[in-house]
């Protein structure tokens, strides 16, 4: 490879599912909304302390809503994945982004993981682990059937390579 | 040696733990018993004392009972291809471990065990982060038995792995690589560990006193001190306090060094293993398989770096969970840098240690700016908080703010420059060499074949400035070793050199005008 200053990593081929942003929004809401809701309720029920709670309410609501609005869209632009003959390649994150490459010959286990929220949207996540304690690649928010096929494909591909993958 | 594995099949060959364990159990009883007798002698038989000491004694009796039952019910044997362990009266367990799966056999001896010439064997199979259930423990065999079993197991394992290859190592293979040199003791006080321990201790005592509602200033010893020295100026008192803290910290560090590294010996065991033995009160013996060794890491905490010293750790797989890995990976204590490099070269069987860092490639200047920004961002809240305090404390706090800023900024700049100078990466004799860190400078050298994947991370700042952090994942040590803030082209080229063909299919040319390298979304 030439040492020029205009090389970069190309984005993997497949986007995550179209329903993923909705799932991330719901996830963000579960994380960001309870606290402002509590302060809102306190604002309604404790009139003498309203001047405190209105500020607390706003201080937690505004960043929370901004997070809910920005994060899912941004993530959807970033999250991508791809499986080639030799490797699994995935990109994730939004502010901090992560590119991961694991050769199929080093894959130890392949598993699917579906949280309750993901199930609600018919989504699924695939985790590909290696012998390294920080080597797992996670592809989240893809369609359930695609995930199933992916796991099957990866399992077959990794069984084809002998060795203990360290 | 044949005694241990005499019975190969059937019911024969089962052995018990050493009966001396009974003495150890009694030894555990002797402390509370002595206390009991002493209290009775001193106070007469107060009911309160009787009850508390009685309950203490009961606890120890129960522990001893459990220990005795374990001794009576535990049996182990080493058949040709497996180690077997049976234990338990109520919950019977029978575990067996194929010999060729053994990755490490460690000998460990607690002080009370040592008093009676006993030791524990830990037979490990684990990969990284495996549950502790994956190791087999023989707690309480005699020292000589422990050594014998260990040698036997490693021999059998090697034979099982290598087919019929005789694995008695050639004499050339044996021999120490490094041994304790008491001149190293001079580096011991430079460890900040002791100071931390003192601070934690002081904090704990203060909290305990607070819980008990005792004002430390009212204690007799303290009032006595205050009466004698109450008239000295405050700065003198503060200076003395700092001095006392530093001296106690240094003393503790030295004590910890002596405890941990007395009798240290790093030696070759045959052609494919190393063994580290060390410890004064607690004996540790760790066997590292060369097959599992992926590299070494040289650590130079700031005080040690100033003194020209360094520590050496192994980057190896199969050392257990990350906590176990931390206690098993040291190859040397703080030793002169040259000595650490020599040991590194010896262990990796190279001419020169790949961690010699004369010609590492530096990182782009933008990385320096990132370090300066980070330092200033850490300093800013402190400086900003002081004038805010000034609302209560008056103008003195504002003065404190600008003085802090004036002193803090040069310190931050110096640290940032040091951190930037520490950054470096390179490829040397099939080793990926990575260096970073200012408070603790770490230089890791990893075998390229050990790299089993890439983890590239980029923050918004890094994306704007054409940097990336290239993480090499390995099935050993900390799991991921990072080349921080390297230029995009340099980083990708390095990845290609280390593991040819792995990243290449995903690298493309981008128009040079666009610094935002991986445009994630394209229609």
From TrEMBL, chain A:
The chain crosses the membrane at residues 21-46, 52-70. Pfam families: bPH_2. Residues 76-154 form the YdbS-like PH domain. It comes from Actinacidiphila glaucinigra. Coiled coil: none annotated. It comes from the Bacteria. InterPro entries: YdbS-like_PH. Keywords: Membrane, Transmembrane, Transmembrane helix. This is YdbS-like PH domain-containing protein.
Automatic annotation (TrEMBL), chain B:
The chain crosses the membrane at residues 21-43, 49-72, 190-209, 234-258, 375-394, 400-420. Keywords: Membrane, Transmembrane, Transmembrane helix. Signal peptide: none annotated. It comes from the Bacteria. The keyword Transmembrane applies. InterPro entries: UCP026631, YdbS-like_PH. Residues 73-152, 420-496 form the YdbS-like PH domain. The keyword Transmembrane applies. This is Putative membrane protein. It comes from Actinacidiphila glaucinigra. The lineage of its organism: Bacteria, Bacillati, Actinomycetota, Actinomycetes, Kitasatosporales.
